[in-house]
Amino acid sequence: MAQYKYSTYLHHDTSVAFDDIHQPGDVCKHSGLFRCETCGDEIAANKGAALPPQNHHQHASGRPIRWRLIVVAQQR
Ligand SMILES: [Zn+2]
Hints:
Layout: E1 21-22, E2 32-36, E3 42-45, E4 67-72
Antiparallel strand pairs: 1-4, 2-3, 2-4
Bound molecules: zinc ion (ZN).
């Protein structure tokens, strides 16, 4: 689970961007942290870059990787 120390640097946001589930290789619309819905693995990814492919990590269950945006990095 993503961790932080100072809550003053985070802002609660109800954007639908956090509801979308992304496939391996999808292009990120936001820079930030993504979490695999299947196993909880977390990664950092940049806007405009592809999310890691299906072979990024494996699940014993054989279920696919499904990425969810959990924290957005605000860029100026
Ligand atoms: Zn996973």
